[in-house]
Fold each of these.
Amino acid sequence: MIRLAIQKSGRLSEDSLNLIRECGISFLSSSYKLKTEATNFPLEILFLRDDDIPGYVQDGVADLGIVGQNVLVEAGFPDLEVEKLGFSKCRLSLAILRSEAYNSVADLQGKNIATSYPQILGRYLAGEGVQANLHTISGSVEIAPSIGLADAICDIVSSGSTLLGNGLREVETVFRSEAVLIANQQLTAEKQELLEQLQFRMQSVRRARR
Ligand code: ATP
Ligand code: ZN
């Protein structure tokens, strides 16, 4: 039996469940249960907050997980990635108030930047030779500039309408992300074999979708 952690409810949940079903794996799921067993594959599915998934897979509480690369890299475990899954594509971008002038990332030198991704942003800014004050906040990052909490933000951007609604404009892409399958690095030979079967099925699903 191999244990896979997926997001309980959020932007990854539906596509994660659909992928497992398209792999030919059947299971009963009800919205209040925290785990379920597949009926035709030795798989147990755990439903968790996405932020907790990298740590649980690193520690072996779960053998496998499906999570965004943004959360995986921020958690500090990029090496757990074993397969790109092609959904939940998004980007982390820097944005500033629309009224502010902007020429290059050097303009952020010494500024206050609010983000939920201090590790990814810190590395990006260091690579650009920019020193800024990062303020880590866990949600509603987009309102920080308009209430005077920060000069800029770094957050997930998809449509741009949230930025617009908060008087912001995107100025730099910091990181591109998609959902990935992750795996514990000390799987038993038996679980490694199950992982390979799952990867094979996931690759077939992706080929068939194209
Ligand atoms: P949880 O309650 O599990 O912590 P959350 O609020 O942190 O959930 P979601 O908003 O459900 O997270 O997003 C989960 C993941 O989906 C993100 O980490 C990112 O990888 C991806 N994602 C976020 N926003 C988008 C988007 N607009 N388009 C595509 N993918 C996205
Ligand atoms: Zn989360």
Amino acid sequence: LAPAPLSAAGRDTGAPADAASQNGGYLTTAQGVRLPDSDHSLKAGPRGPVLLQDHHLREKIMHFDHERIPERVVHARGAAAHGVFRGYGTATGVSKAAFLQEGVETPVFVRFSTVLGSRGSADTVRDTRGFATKFYTGEGVFDLVGNNIPVFFIQDAIKFPDVVHAAKPHPDREIPQAQSAHDTFWDFVSLHTEATHHTLWNMSDRGIPRSYRMMEGFGVHTFRLVNAEGASTLVKFHWKPKAGVHSLVWEEAQLIAGMDPDFHRRDLADAIEAGSFPEWELGIQTFPDTPEQTFAGIDLLDPTKIVPEELAPVQPIGVLTLNANPTNFFAETEQVAFHPGHLVPGIDVTDDALLAGRLFSYLDTQITRLGGPNFAQIPINRPHAPVNDMLRDGFHQDAVHSGVAPYKPNSLDGGCPFFAGPGEHAFIEHPVPIAAAAKVREAPATFADHFSQPRLFWLSLSPVEREHVIAAYTFELSKVYEQAIKERVLTVLARVDEVLCREVAQGLGLPAPQAPAGAQVEVAPSPALSQVGQRWPA
Ligand code: HEM
């Protein structure tokens, strides 16, 4: 019997008829055998027992049984979009990265996320938001894996499992989902007071953004840029939304969480579908790469600190436009694998101890989450630059490698592949001198200042923003069972600001503790920090 041609009835899309493209005109088994029926299992008579020989039944159920992969250990709930980044050329003096040159257009994929909730949790909860961008540059993939809050809870990655254990739902009852209203979170942040700054941002309007389209993004850590002459500059990355920074108010956030838990992902997809493409400018604050790695007395290796924009203005270096929705959530949004160590020539890391741990963690977790070491071959993760990595085999190996000598040097495959010579876009780590030092498990003395910057942030807020912060602390702490934890949080707030402490204490019906004499550091408020409702200056 001659098979009907695959182009029958206009059902063939013309692409190769392989299992990945799934474009055959007929329903088939995974082996490409055409099926007459997919609703009835093979039985011994219409009312008889099901037969084990029914391969179609076994294959269909087996595959369904294995459809789920582990959700991300943090940032499990996300939404993403494709777009393009265009360099302004304003960064070429500090970085040789080709994609930052004037007019260069680079495809990107951006995933926004909440941090704590599971994959099915609500979008508008009070939480930090992830803002991760994959640039498919001609020199390889660059990932900027940032958040919508410019600081982090901890200063050293070795504490990351601890802060996440404290912030995730309680191990006994698995509640609450995706909210900071619980004992372990407040226990942690009141005992580890370097978390005060990030927590204050979470309790501000920044913790409940109106839309992913209206959030700032921050690289958080200080990075190092290197120019064509080999000179280095320390930088902090900022994304500034052209639509301005906007937040919900708490009552709206709660109502929306009930009425439309998909609010943020719907908003992003609808805007893009309607042709209203969200845009952000990428900007950098630049600092001289001195051995001290401080700027205006601020330790640039401490990820709990910002550098106020009045001291180091953000200079725009390019623009990002999101212009296409993913066509398949699992293939793209779920399988995308970001990594802060995906760097291109001209962008390098610093010795920030939080960043160092991240450089290990993402690669490590993705081996489990994406089922083996070959996830760079998943279409959404593939570089748009030629690859010849000499990595071989492993689970889910898609490539059929040619050649017999995957090692270098070799005398069998013509010596290929070659090392990049001078001027051939090699990534060369910047040769940073390392001071002679003893091995220690210690932080620098500057890391002990946990309160001056939370105070700076608090003083920079408008009266209504301060009211929101007070209401947020009061609401979240009112859900805490242990009285001692609430009291300890109040002693932390006393060190940030007397009014904040007094108002929250009053809301909780507790006495307000006094701050130790001289505990409140004198700081000048930073108007640029309070940007909710404002647009990026033209
Ligand atoms: C995931 C940001 C600190 C471990 C993510 C994601 C973002 C992010 C945006 C989601 C990526 C996506 O959309 O797929 C940050 C920022 C940090 C930080 C801005 C601090 C400045 C850390 C630290 C660790 C860590 C210190 C561990 C030591 C992870 C892991 C994932 C993740 C394991 C899941 C990755 C995956 O499954 O693909 N982080 N993170 N993060 N982060 Fe972080």
